[in-house]
Structures are given as structure tokens and as C-alpha cells.
Amino acid sequence: MKTRSPRLVIVSARAPFVRTGSGIVRAPGGLISALLPLMRRSRGTWIATGADREACDTSELPFRVRALALPSEIRSAWYAGASNGALWPLSHGFGEVCRFRAEQARAYFEVCRAAADAAAEYALPGGVVWVHDYQLALVPALLRARRPDLTIGFFWHIPWPASDSLRVLPWASELIEGVLGADLVGLHVPRYVRAFRDALDELGIAYVNDGESIVVPRGARHTRIEAWPIGVDVDGWASLGRDETVAAEAARITADLGGGRVLLSVDRMDYAKGIVERLEAFERLLEQNAEARERVTLVQIGVPSRETVPAYRELRQRIEATVGRIQGRFGGPRRKPVHLFARTFDSTELAAYYLAADAAIVTPKRDGMNLVAFEYVATRPRPNGRLLLSTTAGAADVLTEAHLVNPYDEEGLTSAIEDVALAPETASDIARMAALQARVSQLSVETWASGFLARLEQVTEERVPVRAQETRLAASARVTRAR
Ligand code: ADQ
Question: Within a domain: residue 362?
Fold first, then answer.
């Protein structure tokens, strides 16, 4: 499908480039690698609300990157406060961590207004704007009010909050109205689309079910809410997995770790990723199983994250203390059962660990999707290794052949880790990994990005009068009216 990429404006919290000790470099992560080629082709504008201005000085690029000039107290109240102190925990079911403060909500509204102003300024007539994530959820409606000529897409990268959770957000109604300014709203999996429908019910907003997607009439237009599961740069990870230098590094890692079984976890240090709970489950395994004490090693790669938010600083201390305790109880001069790396790895280093690992332990307490699960599968040149995955990650709805576990079930988590670590490999394991590899190949992040944009174009073209649309859909679907 052809997309209208020549007029694309992207709005996101993060910029495609970051400043590091060695200069301005491409920001890590699959989303950036998927969107960069699109932006190069489109010669459009990337508006980054949370970026530092220097990192946006990209005169050699065929597209513009614009950072917003925001006072630091507004930026902090928006990012550390409303976004990561309220919306993030709310959406991941951590109600007790949420703090709702009026000045943070005001900052959130202000940043969204500034982002909408910038997008309105840079978008060409009839252009396409793609807004990303929970930090900028009001932008679609604010932008629509300024520029009704635009086609607006929005992607929410985390779980859509359960309606009970949403009830406690003082500005829930503004949040939903903000999102509904888009023509197409993407969520990772159908489960989140159903949660969005619950929120519409809760707020008495009328909608039409259309298969697994939802259509919300909005005057002369409508908003479509659909599942668009993201993926990773499959070819990039697969080619690292076939690289001889990476394979040699993987062999060295295995040897350095004592030649036993290697378990690997890779996460941003975030309480939603269940890192402490996973370490505790591993500690129970070491208590119970002599073979695990002798030959199983857990490598936890955890990049520090959002350290301006108190809950994140405390988490890092808890992780370090738990690793220290396990080490003290089960470590020895020649044996270290847990290795913790608290820093960013480049993709070549990560790929070596993905190859070295007999199993990836991906056990977030909740996760929108989880790209690490995809990366582990994509990197392996042969269908070996095991993926242990939480049922509470969006990825579990897609990667159904993984070993699934409920991360809240303490004994269940310990015994699942024991199984993937120590059970001999069977034909069924190989068949499962082969099926996972086929699935991951279908879901590349490039396909996701270009597919979403093509669908956005299609959805806008089907701008039939809303009544006719409702009548057509009503024949095969339930029509819900405002309660
Ligand atoms: P995140 O919460 O950041 O993303 P995830 O999907 O796992 O979570 O992506 C993390 C990315 O960071 C992966 O590409 C991983 O390789 C990388 N990474 C992690 N630790 C690293 C380290 N130490 N060094 C280098 N790289 C590291 C949000 C949502 C997810 C959703 C994505 C995409 O929370 O649920 O899958 O967006 O929509």
C-alpha cells in the first residue's frame, strides 16, 4: 500500500537523536529505527517535546527535528509528574504509585498545547500527523481544533488502563476526548481495544463495534480504534544473530559464566517490568534446587530509567539490594549466580547475550507489548532456546507459543523458571521456537509503521457520513448508545 509519507509530521516525547559523551547519536529502540526511514523519505518534521535542543541540530538530515522550548519546571511536571507519576502507573495497574497533582495536570495540558501548536505550524495543508504515546494524548484533539484539514494518527504504546483505574484520574474525560481527536487510534492488542471500549461505556460516549475495532462518530467524521501489534527490526536482529563476531562473543560469555545454563532478562529499570519479583523467584529456585545452585546463572541487563521519579530511584536500590542478598547467600569465589548490568548496551552486545542465553526470562508485571521477547526470538539463527513470557504482557497475545507464566504467582514463577532453565530440550521446544520465529518475522516494525500509515490514509478516505456508516455497521454489530 502507498502512504502519504511526503507530508508526514511525527510528534513524540523522545527525539530520534540523543547527545552522548561521543556526540549526537541515534536514539536506541525499534520505534526510532522504523520511523527514521519513513521520515527520510517524507522530508517532513519530527517534533520532540522532551528533547534537548542540541540533539535536534540535524542540518545534514533530509527532514527537520524540532525540540520545544519548555521551561524546565513545566517539562518536569509534565514528564516526571503527570506522565510517569500518574498515567504510566495508572495504565499498568499500579494505583498506589499514582500521584495526581493539579499543577502537573496543567503542565501536561500546556505541553500538549505547545506540541499541537508546533504540529499545526509545520504540517502542510491536508498533511498527515502521527502522534505517539501517553505523554501526548491530548494532542490529537487540540491539533484537530487548530487544523481540521489534517489527517491525524495516534499510537498508545502502553496498556490501555482498565476502566476502574481510569475512574481515579481526575482528567479521564479530557484524556479520552484528546485521543478521539485522531482519525485512527492504535493500541497493541485487541485486549486493549476492549479496555478502551469499557472507557467509552464508562463515560457514556457512543460507539459502534466493527469486528474487533471500534468506530466513534465525531460530528462529520469518526475515530477508529484498532489493534496494531508492534514488532522489531527483524532483519537487523537476525543479521546480528548470524554474525561470526557476535557468535564468538556469545561463546565467550557462556564460557565466562562457567559453561552452565544462562538465563537472560533485559529491561528498563521500571517497577512494571517485575525485576525484583523475578530475582526473588530465582532466589527461591536456588534455595530449592541443588542443580540450579551449581549451574544456572541469571544475567539481568537493566538500563536505569526515569530517575527523576522517586519510585524509580527506590526501585534501583531494591534491585541492587536483592542481587547483593542472592550473591551473599549463594555466590562463591568461582560462582556468581546473578550478574546485574545497570547500563545501556549497544545492539551488538545485546545480540551476543541473546545468543548466549538458553532462555529469555521476560516476566513484566504488566507491559504494553515488550520488544525484548521479540528481539530474543529474532536474533537466534536456529529454533533453539526458550522464551518465558508473562501472560500480562501484550506480547503474550501475539507470541502464544512462548512458555507463559503469571508473574504474580510466586511459586508458579519459580517453577516456570526452573522448567525453562533445566528441563532437557524436546522436539516440542524446537517446534515452539520455530513458530515464534515465523510470527516475529511477520511482525516487523517497518511493516507496522508503514501499515499503520496506510491504514490511516484509508480510514480518512472512508470518511462517509457518520449516519450511513452507523447503519451499515449496525446490521452486523451491536450499537451501543450513551448510558
Ligand atoms: P519499553 O517500556 O521501553 O517500551 P520494551 O518494549 O521492552 O519496553 O522495549 C525496551 C527496548 O529497550 C528494547 O528494544 C530493548 O532492547 C531496549 N533495552 C532495554 N534495556 C536495554 C539496555 N540495558 N541497553 C540497551 N537497550 C536496552 C514501551 C512499552 C512497551 C512497548 C514499547 C513499544 O512500555 O510495552 O513494547 O514501548 O511500543
Answer: yes
Indicate whether 241 and 226 sit together in one domain: no
The tens digit of pLDDT for each residue in 87-122 reads 999 999 999 999 999 999 999 999 999 999 999 999
Q: List the Cα angle 476/217/128 in 5-degree steps.
A: 115
Residue-range definition of the domain harbouring residue 93: 8-230+449-467
Ligand 1 midpoint to CA 302 (Å) = 10
Determine, yes or no, domain membership for 36: yes
Q: Is residue 330 part of a domain?
A: yes
Q: Which atom of ligand 1 is nearest to the CA of 28?
A: 26
Confidence of residue 317 (pLDDT cuts 50, 70, 90): very high
Q: Where are the alpha helices (DSSP H) in 150-289?
A: 163-166, 172-179, 190-203, 234-242, 244-256, 275-288
In angstroms, the CA 41 to CA 34 distance is: 12
Strand order in the sheet with 261-268: 338-341, 296-303, 261-268, 359-362, 386-390, 403-405
Q: Is the dihedral of CA 231, 233, 239, 240 positive or negative?
A: negative
133: Cβ below 6 Å to ligand 1? no
Specify whether 218 is located in the same domain as 295. Answer: no
Residues 375, 360 share a domain:
yes
Chain-centre distance for alpha carbon 150 = 26
Q: How many structural domains compose the chain?
A: 2
In this structure, are residues 94 and 271 in contact, taking their beta carbons and an 8 Å threshold? yes
The SS3 call for residue 228 is coil
What would the pLDDT profile of 392-428 be if each residue is shown by its tens digit?
Answer: 999 999 999 999 999 999 999 999 999 999 999 999 9
pLDDT, position 132? 96
Tell me, yes or no, whether 479 lies in a domain. Answer: no
State the SS3 of 399-429: CCCCEEECCCCHHHHHHHHHHHHHCCCCHHH
Return d(Cα 280, Cα 201) in angstroms, integer. 39
Cβ of 358 closer than 6 Å to ligand 1, yes or no, is: no
**For ligand 1, is residue 272 a contact (CB within 6 Å)?**
no
Gap between the Cα atoms of 298 and 339, Å rounded:
6
Q: Are 34 and 481 in contact (CB under 8 A)?
A: no
pTM above 0.90, yes or no: yes
* Helix, coil or strand: residue 198: helix
Q: Which atom of ligand 1 is nearest to the CA of 395?
A: 36
